[in-house]
Structures are given as C-alpha cells and as structure tokens.
UniProtKB/TrEMBL annotation:
<dbReference type="Pfam" id="PF22698">
    <property type="entry name" value="Semialdhyde_dhC_1"/>
</dbReference>
<comment type="function">
    <text>Catalyzes the NADPH-dependent reduction of N-acetyl-5-glutamyl phosphate to yield N-acetyl-L-glutamate 5-semialdehyde.</text>
</comment>
<dbReference type="GO" id="GO:0003942">
    <property type="term" value="F:N-acetyl-gamma-glutamyl-phosphate reductase activity"/>
</dbReference>
<dbReference type="InterPro" id="IPR058924">
    <property type="entry name" value="AGPR_dimerisation_dom"/>
</dbReference>
<comment type="similarity">
    <text>Belongs to the NAGSA dehydrogenase family. Type 2 subfamily.</text>
</comment>
<dbReference type="Pfam" id="PF01118">
    <property type="entry name" value="Semialdhyde_dh"/>
</dbReference>
<dbReference type="GO" id="GO:0051287">
    <property type="term" value="F:NAD binding"/>
</dbReference>
<dbReference type="GO" id="GO:0005737">
    <property type="term" value="C:cytoplasm"/>
</dbReference>
<dbReference type="InterPro" id="IPR010136">
    <property type="entry name" value="AGPR_type-2"/>
</dbReference>
<keyword id="KW-0560">Oxidoreductase</keyword>
<comment type="pathway">
    <text>Amino-acid biosynthesis; L-arginine biosynthesis; N(2)-acetyl-L-ornithine from L-glutamate: step 3/4.</text>
</comment>
<protein>
    <recommendedName>
        <fullName>N-acetyl-gamma-glutamyl-phosphate reductase</fullName>
        <ecNumber>1.2.1.38</ecNumber>
    </recommendedName>
</protein>
<keyword id="KW-0055">Arginine biosynthesis</keyword>
<feature type="active site">
    <location>
        <position position="115"/>
    </location>
</feature>
<dbReference type="GO" id="GO:0006526">
    <property type="term" value="P:L-arginine biosynthetic process"/>
</dbReference>
<keyword id="KW-0028">Amino-acid biosynthesis</keyword>
<dbReference type="InterPro" id="IPR000534">
    <property type="entry name" value="Semialdehyde_DH_NAD-bd"/>
</dbReference>
Length: 301
C-alpha cells in the first residue's frame, strides 16, 4: 500500500517543527520536505501541496489563508493550525460530540483548535449539553500558558533577554478583551454570550491550565464531565483535592486532564494540558490519524 504523503507548510516554526519531528518517526507516512530557502516561495510550496495527500498549515493567519489558495484545485486534505478557519471549517476536536469524528474523517478541511480554546471548550460544551448551565451564562475564564504558545518570536523574547526581570513574572495579556480564541470558544461551546477571557503567560516553555469557576455543585459538575469523556482515550476527569495545580504538569504529553474541585455551592474546573500537545501538535496528529484512517492515538504520547 502506498504511504500517504504529508506536507507541513511552516515546517521551520514552533508547531510545524514539532509535527515534523514527530512524524519523522512514523514509517507509515512519507514526508514532503521543503528547502529552508524555499519555505516562503509560493511556486515551490504549490508543488508540495500538489504532491501531498494531507497538508498541515503551521503559519500565521494571513499566510494560512494564502496557503489554502496555493492548494486549490488539488484533492489534498488540509489541517490548519492557525486561527483563520476555526469558525468556518470542521472543528478538529474529536471529543466534542458523538458525530465529530465522522465529520473530521469525511472533511477535506479541518481547523485545529486554539490552545486556550481547547481547555475552555472541553469544560463548557458538556455543561451546556447537559443543561447544567444555560447558553446565555456569563463566563469568565483565565488561562496560564508557557511562552512557546507565542511562537518563535515570543520564545526568542523569553530566552534571549535573561536580564529582563519583568519576563520572570506572569503577565496578563489579551487586555483589549478581543483575544483571537474568543469567537471559537463562544461558537463551538454553544454560548449565546461572549465569554470574558484572561490569558496569562509565564516564564516556562510549555504547558497550560485553563480555569473556570461556577456557582454549581462540584460533584454534579464532575458527574457530567466524567460521563462526557468516559470513552475518550486522551481526556481524563478527576474529582480533586489538590492544594496546588501546576500549569506545566502535563507538558510533553498529548492528554488533557480535567480537575474538578469545590463544594456543594462553588466549583472550579481546570483543564491541564500541553499547549503544544493537545493544544496544537498532538491534536493535529490525532486529526490526521482520523482523516487518513489510522488508529486515532497512533504516535501520540
Ligand atoms: N505555539 C503554539 O503553542 C500554538 C500555535 N498555533 C498556531 O499555529 C500557527 C503557527 O504558530 P507557531 O508555530 O507558534 O509560529 P512560529 O512563528 O513559531 O512559526 C511560524 C512559521 O511560519 C513561517 N511563515 C510565516 N509567514 C509565512 C509565509 N508567508 N509563507 C510561508 N511560511 C511563513 C515562519 O517563517 P520564519 O521561519 O521565517 O519565521 C515560521 O517558520 C499559528 O497560526 C499559531 O497561532 C496553534 C496552537 C498552539
Ligand atoms: C502565549 C501566547 O501568546 N499564546 C497564543 C496562543 C497560541 C495558540 O494556540 O493560538 P492559536 O492556536 O490561535 O494560534 C495567544 O494567546 O495568542
């Protein structure tokens, strides 16, 4: 049987490089490599797209939109890691609904979820589906992330400027209240109201913790989430009694762990995972496996 041919547009970037390194270990795929000097040459990239059965876009939003036009007229399937198509293409979160895997399998175009959005949706969507919260609820989420979430430029900033004490403390951003993940958080979760969202970046490489508080019975929240994910190989739910949750606890894995803490009146739910794992590369490989008919968790860790 011919091995599926895979092209990664943006293979020198943070997300693209990690997908490339991980797929190099797979003997059931053939990788299409592009010379470093040609990586922004539209003609060379077009040739790569034409040869590929499936391509990953690991590019800034505008470049991802342009890349789709380079692949036009081909039968190449595309997984876009950028924000550009997340509210228009099939959403690449297989655990979302019972029919989401089928949608991903049959799609030509799949949008890989945003990292913060992955944690947010994994908590809010099942609670709305179970009618535990209403779609018009006002939700405030905050999310801690490592600096690799900001790609090459942020990595350079944190690793290049060791003298800057400000970078050694957590920083709130998204202060315009228009973080780029808010539209997908709202649409995919099924909220009629825009959520409030506070992202926080800190001085560590990878790992994240998305947290949301509710005035609900913690046991009831746990039961709903546990039921929603009981058959999902990459998502676990725990009723916790931890004193601390560390934002990099799930680094270098492709799993997502939901912790429910609280009492009869108040609940905090935290989604712990790797921004580059289930938040990006791991999810992208999971989607690729589904789209190409491989075992879903092949090559995941
Ligand atoms: N980092 C993360 O945790 C996550 C990132 N994402 C998304 O994945 C995408 C890639 O992010 P990330 O890997 O972090 O970003 P990086 O900045 O690390 O990498 C982007 C890559 O795209 C290349 N590039 C930029 N413009 C073009 C162009 N016009 N044509 C071809 N190549 C181009 C860059 O080239 P050059 O080498 O010259 O800089 C770079 O290699 C983004 O949309 C990001 O939002 C999604 C989830 C998580
Ligand atoms: C630290 C940092 O800047 N993180 C990025 C998110 C990275 C990511 O997942 O965003 P996309 O998938 O949408 O590209 C941010 O908050 O904008």
């Amino acid at each position: 049987m011919n091995k599926p041919k895979i092209y990664i547009d943006g293979q020198a970037g943070t997300t693209g490089l990690q997908i490339l390194e991980r797929l190099k270990e797979r003997e059931d795929l053939e990788l299409i490599l592009i010379a470093q000097a040609d990586r922004k040459d539209p003609e060379k990239r077009k040739e790569c797209f034409a040869k590929a059965d499936l391509a990953f876009l690991c590019l800034p939003d505008q470049a991802a939109i342009e890349a789709v036009s380079l692949a036009e007229g081909t039968s190449t399937k595309i997984i876009d890691a950028s924000t550009a198509h997340r509210t228009s293409w099939v959403y690449g979160f297989p655990e979302l609904d019972p029919d989401q895997r089928k949608k991903i399998k049959e799609a030509k175009y799949v949008a890989n979820p945003g990292c913060h959005a992955t944690g947010f949706i994994s908590i809010v969507h099942p609670l709305i589906q179970a009618n535990l919260i209403k779609p018009d609820i006002s939700i405030h989420a905050f999310s801690l992330t490592g600096y690799s979430g900001g790609g090459k430029s942020m990595i350079q900033q944190y690793e290049g400027d060791q003298e800057n004490d400000l970078l050694k403390s957590p920083a709130i951003y998204g202060l315009s209240m228009q973080h780029k993940h808010i539209p997908e958080m709202q649409k995919i979760s099924g909220l009629s109201r825009k959520p409030l969202f506070t992202p926080i970046v800190d001085d560590y490489y990878n790992g994240m913790l998305v947290s949301i508080q509710f005035e609900l019975d913690a046991r009831q929240v746990f039961e709903v989430l546990n039921k929603a994910y009981q058959d999902q190989p990459l998502i676990e739910v725990e009723f916790g009694n931890n004193s601390f949750l560390y934002a990099n606890a799930m680094r270098n894995t492709d799993h997502l762990k939901l912790y429910v803490h609280g009492n009869e009146e108040q609940t905090i739910v935290c989604a712990s995972f790797d921004n580059l794992g289930k938040g990006a590369c791991g999810a992208a490989i999971q989607n690729m496996n589904i789209m190409l008919g491989f075992e879903e968790t092949k090559g995941l860790r």
